[in-house]
Design a protein that fits this description.
The complex is a heterodimer of chains A (549) and B (156). Chain A is mostly helical. Chain A contains 16 helices and no strands. With 156 residues, chain B is of the alpha+beta class. Chain B folds into 2 domains: 35 residues; 111 residues, Sandwich (Immunoglobulin-like), CATH 2.60.40.420. Classes of the chains: A mainly alpha (549), B alpha+beta (156). Bound molecules: protoporphyrin IX containing FE and copper (II) ion.
Chain lengths: 549, 156
């Protein structure tokens, strides 16, 4: 077990921590916005000083959907790559810092234009609503910064491969590289719409914009975005949790295969966000629905691997009976408990996702608050609780401290608080959505419509859940601040599990990036070429910009 | 690559379910015609008021118990926004936007579609029950987004 003493180099640790700090600052501010939203939507509370609900909502979506996630992920992946493939060269670390500052300046720029009310366009910024050019510029910097960090990761990976000929890359490094490849390929879409369409248009260089093309480029990015959030959580599940509980990785090569399948099937699927739109034929919508559903396969592989790991561990500790192994799991360890609760929430979340991606059922729930309920299970519970669980060892590992028993207990409580708060909020969002309550809307009775009045009790339940969740945010901030600055000094392990049966040859075969990227591009071309050309050839007159807030 | 026997069973079962799902969706879409709104007709968003049928928005009888309902959507209104429909009528709803993207939802029904400038979108529905339904905008369109509303009354 030579792994146990391996530490992330202090200089790399600083880089990773810088990202994680920004992520948790975003959580604090974004969480406050979330609380205000639920209060406004309950109808019992109004924002002071004429602040617009939609300014708050834009802040929430950008800070939590884009900033918290991207910063935490890049910080975590830097740490994981440095831990498993060795300390960065000075050059790689330098570019890592360039990436960090580019993203941070971008975030600050975007935040300025949102908070001054010049960009209340929500985090999806659908044209022809037109934000101040600074908003688009800031987002561009965030994306460019993430690209720089992605390339720094690739350079480090290439060096490792060169120094270890004939060896498979370490699992966590392989997974981080897969996720950055996914990110690079998908952000090309959002970069294209921002740089070619929206930025020149908001600067007044061009008058009009093709709305459907812009949306399509956005959703080419928007769905893989959610897999970019999810894959780091899977990194923790596959490669860290087995070590935390004292077991082994069920299958190293199947884990790699699952990641590659996610790379293939998360991008050529954006139309499932556009199922109810004009301008796209039903045939191409269905093609992308079929591709969407293919992610079921790696998801089932992941579910199997997790529970097989848990069961194998429990049985090795003498568990008997069908479910006896459950009792052997370390329920009192927050590093396990928080991600495990996240996994449980992924079961209803995944079922909801299948509903959303099905043509006819999407008709019922599209753009209702059901959808918001759905992704507060996926990203705001499964992913976020896994990130919290990872932070409980990652932050003290990087800061050279240890988590005390008291903090561990607080982290268990935090997890329970989050689960309870989210069950209230997300549960009532799902129910209200089925009754037709729309998402992205301030409180309204729609002219005392009897239907809208029926939604109000659910909106009050959302506010109750939102308040509980906000307490959860305060708790996690207390814990993280403690682990970063106040906890006792000491050594904390960065847990990395070993495979039950190493399959070096199969794993090595997975380092075949030319093939994977080739297949990814081929699938994208199949899914998008014809409908995209149609869109451009049959385009209606473009739209000028509107500032309607 | 080695795969555990139970995992093979699990995946076979899962993938089989997946194909059943996809077949159900595909058959009901292509054989039964339950497709999502996907109209391909374009329109100049700045000339909506001059372009038929949106130059005279409202309910038009097109056949025996068949109607067309043409609605202009703009920030922040549906035109018209009070509509009476006879029970049992088969209504084809056409919508388009004069400015930004909106959503057209009739709460409590499957009527739900995106309204985008430059395109007409359309859906057909038979109203078999009397009652009152709320129309609302479910895609963010600006400060008055949550004020956009209307009513459909289905009457004897
Ligand atoms: C205190 C915890 C939270 C509360 C109370 C909360 C509440 C809400 C509410 C009420 C909405 C919908 C508002 C509307 O559609 O009108 C919303 C939207 C959203 N939330 Fe949260 N949320 C919380 C945490 C999170 C977290 C941790 C994430 C992401 C990691 C997140 C991501 C989002 C996103 C991306 C949206 C969509 C914004 C949009 O539609 O433009 N939320 N949240
Ligand atoms: Cu609207």
């Amino acid at each position: 077990m030579m792994n146990e003493t391996v530490k992330v180099d202090r200089r790399d640790a600083k880089l990773a921590l810088a990202h994680i700090y920004v992520a948790f600052i975003a959580l604090a501010l974004g969480g406050l916005a979330g609380l205000l939203q639920t209060l406004v939507r309950s109808g019992k509370f109004q924002l002071p000083a004429g602040i617009s609900y939609y300014t708050i909502l834009t802040t929430h979506g950008v800070l939590l959907g884009l900033v918290l996630t991207t910063f935490f992920i890049i910080g975590f992946q830097f740490a994981a790559v440095s831990r498993t493939s060795g300390t960065f060269s000075n050059r790689v670390r330098f570019w890592g810092w360039v990436g960090f500052w580019t993203m941070t300046i971008g975030t600050a720029t975007t935040a300025f234009f949102i908070l001054t009310g010049q960009a209340s366009v929500l985090y999806t910024f659908y044209a022809p609503l037109q934000a101040h050019a600074g908003f688009y510029l800031g987002l561009t910097l965030v994306v460019v910064g993430s690209w720089i960090s992605g390339f720094a990761t690739f350079v480090h990976y290439a060096r490792w491969k060169k120094e270890h000929p004939g060896k498979a890359s370490p699992l966590l490094t392989f997974m981080a590289v897969t996720n950055m490849v996914l990110w690079l390929v998908c952000t090309l879409g959002v970069a294209a719409t921002v740089l070619i369409q929206l930025l020149p248009w908001s600067l007044g260089i061009v008058d009009r914009v093709n709305v459907l093309v812009s949306r399509t480029l956005f959703w080419y990015f928007g769905h893989p975005l959610v897999y970019f959030w999810l894959l780091p959580a899977y990194m923790v599940w596959y490669a860290v949790i087995p070590k935390v509980i004292g077991g082994k990785i069920f299958s190293d090569s199947l884990a790699r295969l699952a990641f590659i399948l996610f790379l293939f099937f998360s991008i050529p699927v954006g139309f499932h966000h556009q199922l109810l739109e004009p301008g796209i034929t039903p045939f191409w919508k269905y093609v992308q629905v079929v591709l969407t559903f293919m992610v079921v396969i790696p998801s089932l592989m992941t579910a199997f691997a997790m529970f097989a790991t848990f069961e194998a561990y429990g049985r090795s500790k003498g568990a008997t009976g069908l479910f006896g192994w459950l009792r052997k799991l370390p329920w009192g360890d927050a590093r396990f408990f928080a991600p495990f609760v996240g996994m449980l929430f992924f079961i209803p979340a995944g079922a909801g996702g299948i509903i959303n991606a099905s043509h006819q059922m999407d008709q019922v729930v599209h753009n209702t608050i059901w959808v918001t309920g759905h992704f507060h299970l996926t990203v705001a519970t499964t992913v976020v609780l896994t990130f919290f669980g990872a932070a409980y060892w990652l932050v003290p590992h990087l800061s050279g401290r240890v988590m005390t028993k008291a903090m561990n207990r607080l982290a268990i409580i935090q997890t329970v608080v989050w689960a309870v708060g989210m069950s209230f909020m997300s549960g009532s969002m799902h129910f209200a959505g089925l009754l037709g309550a729309p998402r992205r809307s301030a409180f309204s009775t729609y002219g005392n419509s009897p239907q809208a009045l029926e939604w109000i009790p659910y909106q009050i339940a959302q506010a109750v859940g939102g308040t509980i969740l906000f307490i959860g945010i305060i708790l996690v901030l207390v814990i993280i601040t403690n682990l970063a600055f106040f906890a006792p000094k000491g050594e904390t392990e960065f847990p990395v599990a070993e495979a039950a049966e190493p399959q070096e040859r199969a794993a090595l075969a997975m380092d075949n990036w030319k093939l994977w990227i080739g297949i990814t591009i081929a699938l994208i071309l199949i899914a998008y070429t014809v409908p995209f050309i149609d869109m451009i050839q049959n385009a209606p007159p473009g739209s000028k910009g509107y500032k309607l807030w | 690559m080695h795969m555990h026997k139970y995992e093979k069973i699990w995946l076979t079962f899962g993938i089989a379910c997946l194909f059943v799902f996809l077949t159900v969706i595909g058959v009901s879409a292509f054989a039964e015609g339950k497709q999502p709104p996907s109209c391909l007709t374009t329109i100049d968003p700045e000339k909506v008021d001059q372009t038929p049928p949106f130059n005279k928005p409202g309910l038009v009888k097109t056949g025996d118990n068949e109607y067309q309902l043409n609605i202009v959507v703009s920030a922040f209104a549906f035109t018209p926004n009070q509509i009476e429909i006879p029970k049992g009528a088969k209504v084809t709803i056409n919508v388009t936007s004069k400015d930004v993207i909106h959503g057209f939802e009739v709460a409590g029904t499957n009527i739900n579609m995106m309204v985008e400038p430059g395109y007409i979108n359309t859906i057909t529905k038979t109203f078999n029950q009397t009652g009152e339904y709320t129309i609302l905008c479910n895609e963010y369109c600006g400060a008055g987004h949550h004020m956009m509303t209307g009513r459909i009354k289905v009457v004897e």
